[in-house]
Structures are given as structure tokens and as C-alpha cells.
Write a structure and sequence with these properties.
Helix content: 25-40%
Largest sheet: 9 strands, mixed
Shape: globular
Number of strands: 21
Number of helices: 17
Structural class: alpha/beta
Oligomer: single chain
Radius of gyration: 23 Å
Length: 526
């Protein structure tokens, strides 16, 4: 009934052109402004893509007037860790994001980004996607440009070339430096190397965001390393998609969060982000020792052809299945997509073992993982995270919400449900049902906090002069519907979305209009 009343009012209050000082007027909304402060009843007016006025506005007119009684109006949600670029090129409407209320995504994560960055920023402006998109400069991409995937320290000349590439990316529009110290080739870098590059980003106003070196047994040391990079690099630093992987490590979020609190107390600007699920998702290469992946696919094939080396690699894969990402059971490693064989999506390593007439042991699963990697590797979902750690991390004061997902569409593989449900799941399950935090705090973690961290000074708050990235949702209905078994299900409860004032979702339906554009970081000439 609430949705029907909103639809009626939307039609009833379209005014003559002579009485239209605003493009949009949202009346009687329960406004949560992105600051973390309590909600208040107000009207919000939009003109020319920006928020023009807030208040009673009883006698104001607009081309479109919405009675939002019973609904929450919030700033558009900012996904601080996204892999949306590839999907946006295919699906610029980004329906899976818009239906969650996401209006801005940050790409270039885990040490991997486009270079030169100016080209992709121009591409995004031409594409005009449904969401705004900004980028970090990837340390791994920069290192590969200079050193390929060699497992060694850079020479002084090579480090200087890396610094120059990072500086150019910052001037092109990057928001800072992303590192993927778990992945090749970032894993081959010392902390000192990263700090040298972080200082370049710091000199140009950037931040550092890191997929840490280890999220399993070495998670505490990895958080300490991320803090050190910010402290010695002289820039804000972020532990991204923070999680604790492997049953033996469950509960250690208490230690990692204590480290972050202690660092903040001594003046280190460190924050974190997280997604609300007990499974991670990355490539099947995550099961391999990083040294085995040095030099690329051909080098790996040569190592696997040597019996002793193959045995070492296989033993480490077995260990990772039993002790960390595999959660102790090959059934916990589920393929999300394989380019060389789409039919594998949704099958676990245990399933594949049984199809081959094998017992689903870690050893047999390791042989299958080697086979998959030799064929190009797959994206996989790893069920190895504790709900207690998820809740502790989400509830922590300085955790913002981020999906680590991208733009997907129904029928494309068997992706992690975070692509469809992250933001709605926090508001539905963890706020309304679990009461883990107040609604205002959750919205702040999705809006004002990431905007502050990234330096998006014209977004993330409902204030006059800010860009009109807005989401209108029903706090009693908002929920995720995507599951691991059935991931292709859109979130529910988001009624309307505006991106830079462009109405993108109306009455729960996509309008076909797109208002997003490329965002430029602090050193950009634009």
C-alpha cells in the first residue's frame, strides 16, 4: 500500500510549467542525511543535478513532486570497493547496483587498474553509465608494466619508473594507490617498496587501499603492514574487504580491530570496508602458492611438468583447501565462472571430483584445481568465514560498506550474491533484523564515511549544493534476495534512485535514463 500511495502522489503533483522553480521536489521524507545524525522530516528540492534546498518548502513547485511519506531519503550509496568496469561496458544500466541504491563505485582495486587512466575516464564519460565511477591506480599493474611478473625487488631505476607511472595516473584522475599484496605480482613487493609508492600518492592528495598480504593465519601481521604503509607513507590507509578466513583463525577480528583502534588513537588515518557475507570470491589462483604463479601461465606449466615442483604446489593447494580458503572441505570451493567452460559455474571442487568418479578429498580437489588453472583459471566462491567475525567487523565504527562485486546480469554464471545484495542486506538483515547498528549509522557507512575517505566533497550528504545522488527506500521492505544457490535476484525495497539528478529508478522500475560519469581524484587537472 505504501508503494501504491507513492505512485499516486507522483502522478497527482505534476504542476504547470509556470510554477516549476525546481526540477524535483521530494516532500515528507524521513531524511537520513549521511552524517550519522538522527533522521528528520523534511522536503528536498533538486535543480540542475544538484540539491537546491532542504526544509518545509510548503509552497514550492517543481516539474515532479513526490510525497515520500513512510519512506527514507538518503544520499546515494558509495561502493568503496568495486569491480564494475567490465560489467558496465556490457550493461551500462547497472541494474543490480541501482536496485540496491548504489550511485557511485570505486574501481582499480586489489592492485589492478587500467593504464593509462585518462583513456578509461574518457571512455566512461562517453558511455554515460547509470552510476558514477572513480579509480585507484593499481600497484600490481604498474609493477607489471615495469617488471612483468618477476619475483624480485625492483632496481632503483625500475622503482623510479613505477613512481612516474603512479604520478601520471594520479594526475590523470586516480584517487590513490591500490595494492593487492596477496596477488601476483604485488605479493613479491616488500613493504618498503609500497611505502615508497605511497609517498608519491600522498604528495598528490591520494589514499591507499589494500587487499592485504594475508587474510588467514597472517591476518594480524597484514593489518599491521597496512597501517604501517599509511603511517610511514603519510597518507590515509584502508584495509579493504576485511575478513578472517579459515576456521583456525576465526575470532581474530577482535585483534585486528584493536590494532586499527590503537593506530587511530596515535593519529594514523586508517579505516576499513567489508561486505556482509560468510564467503569470499576470487580466482582459483588463490589456492596456489604465489611463487608458483611467477612468470605467468607458461612458467606455471613448466613448474607443473617437474614432478618435485608439482608435488610442492599440490601440497600447498591441499593445505589451503583444508586450513584457509577451502574451509576444510572441497565442497566449500564453488566455481562462479570459467571462460573456457561456462557449464562449470555453480559446481564445487567436490562436485567435479564426483563427476570424475573420485572421492572428494582435498588431494583430488587439488588435482582438479591444477587442471582448471592450466586451462586459464576460474572465478570461485570460498565458504570459510565466521558470521561472528562478519558482525564484529560490520559493527566497528570505522567500517564502511563495500561489495567487492561488479555489474552482472541474470544468466551470467553463478556469481557471489554480493553483486546483487550487499547494501540491501546490511539495511535489511543487519539493521532491521539483527539490530547490529542504527539505520542512520549504516547509511553513514555507505555515504558520508566513504565520501569523506575518498574526498568526494560534493557527494555523500544531503546538503544544498551537493550533487543529487539520492535513494528513496522503504526501511520495512528493503532486503536482499540473492543467495549462493540462486544469486541472480535483485534486491527489494528501493523505490527511486537519482544519479546527478537523473531519475534512474522510478516506482521500483528502471527508467532507461543514465546520469553517471567519471570521477576525478585530487590531483586531476579537471
Amino acid at each position: 500500500m505504501r508503494s501504491m500511495r507513492w505512485m499516486f502522489c507522483l502522478t497527482a503533483f505534476v504542476l504547470p510549467l509556470a510554477a516549476q522553480p525546481y526540477d524535483l521536489l521530494i516532500r515528507n521524507a524521513r531524511v537520513i542525511d549521511g552524517t550519522g545524525a538522527g533522521w528528520f522530516r523534511s522536503s528536498v528540492a533538486v535543480r540542475g543535478g544538484s540539491i537546491a534546498a532542504i526544509g518545509r518548502l510548503d509552497h514550492a513547485g517543481a516539474r515532479t513532486v513526490i510525497d515520500a511519506r513512510g519512506l527514507v531519503l538518503a544520499p546515494g550509496f558509495i561502493d568503496a570497493h568495486s569491480h564494475a568496469l567490465a560489467g558496465l561496458r556490457q550493461h551500462p544500466d547497472a541494474e543490480n547496483l541501482i536496485r540496491q541504491g548504489v550511485t557511485t563505485v570505486m574501481e582499480g582495486q586489489d592492485g589492478s587498474s587500467p593504464l593509462p587512466l585518462r583513456d578509461v575516464l574518457e571512455e566512461m564519460d562517453r558511455l554515460r553509465p547509470a552510476v558514477n565511477i572513480g579509480f585507484f591506480a593499481g600497484h600490481g599493474t604498474i609493477r607489471t608494466r615495469v617488471m612483468k611478473t618477476e619475483m624480485r625487488a625492483p632496481t632503483i631505476e625500475e622503482l623510479d619508473r613505477m613512481k612516474a607511472l603512479l604520478e601520471q595516473a594520479m594526475r590523470d584522475g586516480a584517487f590513490g594507490l591500490s595494492t593487492g599484496l596477496f596477488y601476483v605480482p604485488g605479493n613479491y613487493a616488500t613493504t618498503a617498496e609500497v611505502i615508497e609508492l605511497a609517498r608519491v600518492a600522498a604528495s598528490l592528495g591520494g589514499v591507499h587501499i589494500s587487499h592485504m598480504r594475508d587474510e588467514t593465519a597472517g591476518v594480524v601481521a597484514s593489518v599491521a603492514e597496512t597501517i604501517r604503509i599509511g603511517e610511514e607513507g603519510g597518507l590515509p590507509t584502508q584495509v579493504t574487504h576485511h575478513k578472517i578466513i579459515g576456521k583456525a583463525n576465526w575470532g581474530r577480528s577482535a585483534e585486528t580491530l584493536r590494532l586499527i583502534s590503537e593506530a587511530r588513537a596515535r593519529g594514523v588515518d586508517v579505516t576499513l570496508d567489508a561486505y556482509p557475507y560468510t564467503a569470499s570470491s576470487t580466482g582459483t589462483g588463490a589456492l596456489f602458492p604465489q611463487w608458483a604463479l611467477s612468470g605467468g601461465a607458461q612458467a606455471l606449466a613448466e613448474r607443473l611438468s617437474a614432478p618435485e615442483t608439482r608435488a610442492r604446489i599440490r601440497a600447498e593447494i591441499v593445505r589451503r583447501i583444508l586450513e584457509d580458503r577451502g574451509g576444510g572441505d572441497p565442497a566449500n570451493v564453488v566455481l562462479a565462472s570459467c571462460r573456457f567452460d561456462p557449464a562449470l559455474a555453480g559446481k564445487s571442487l567436490a562436485d567435479l571430483a564426483r563427476e570424475r568418479g573420485l572421492t572428494p578429498t582435498a588431494e583430488n580437489a587439488a588435482d582438479i584445481a591444477i587442471e582448471l588453472q592450466r586451462r586459464g583459471g576460474c572465478s570461485a566462491i570460498y565458504h570459510a568465514i565466521s558470521e561472528d567475525d562478519v558482525e564484529r567487523i560490520l559493527a566497528y565504527r570505522w567500517t564502511m560498506i563495500a561489495s567487492d562485486g561488479g555489474v552482472v546480469a541474470p544468466g551470467e554464471g553463478a556469481p557471489h550474491p554480493r553483486n546483487y545484495g550487499t547494501f540491501a542486506r546490511v539495511l535489511g538483515r543487519y539493521v532491521r533484523e539483527r539490530k547490529l547498528m542504527p539505520l542512520e549509522e549504516a547509511v553513514w557507512k555507505m555515504t558520508g564515511l566513504p565520501a569523506q575517505r575518498l574526498g568526494l566533497w560534493d557527494r555523500g550528504l544531503i546538503r544544498p549544493g551537493m550533487q543529487a545522488d539520492l535513494v528513496l527506500f522503504d526501511p520495512e521492505r528493503i532486503a536482499d534476495r540473492a543467495t549462493f544457490a540462486e544469486p541472480h535476484q535483485y534486491a527489494e525495497g528501493v523505490v527511486a534512485v537519482w544519479v546527478n539528478g537523473v531519475e534512474t529508478l522510478r516506482e521500483g522500475k528502471m527508467t532507461g535514463s543514465r546520469g553517471g560519469h567519471a570521477l576525478h581524484g585530487p590531483a586531476s587537472a579537471r
